[in-house]
Design goal:
The protein has about 130 residues and is an alpha+beta fold. The chain has one domain: Nuclear Transport Factor 2, Chain: A, CATH 3.10.450.50. Helices cover about 30% and strands about 45% of the residues. Strands 2-1-6-5-4-3 form a 6-stranded mixed sheet. A hairpin with an 8-residue loop joins β1 and β2. This is Limonene-1,2-epoxide hydrolase domain-containing protein.
Length: about 130
Amino acid sequence: MTDESLIHELFQGFEKCTGDDVEPALSFFAPDVVFYMYGPHEAPITGRQQLQAAFKETFSILKSFQVEIISVARTGNKIFVERIERMLYAGVQAVTLYQVGVGEVGSDNKFTSWKDYFDPVEIKKAAEGN
């Protein structure tokens, strides 16, 4: 599988997630994954069970989640993904996030770590109803 294929399948999985079912994305992560959902300045989520709970919470709030992949690059076992995410926060507030994610991939093509980098101002505005 190419890096581009893996990334497109991962984010297609995210687009299918709901507050009740996050397996379409969760299946791409190793059991001992370390996931920095809100950037490396926040504590990571560790393990698939914690990640499942975090994804369920996230997708109970976010609706109509769509991802546009801009570019994909690799160095060693790290894959870099530039993307635009569009969603409805709480089902009503349109949010657009410009992000770069860095994932480390194991030999089984499962992500062992993931870090997202983005400006949290847009999410904060949506949470405040602005």
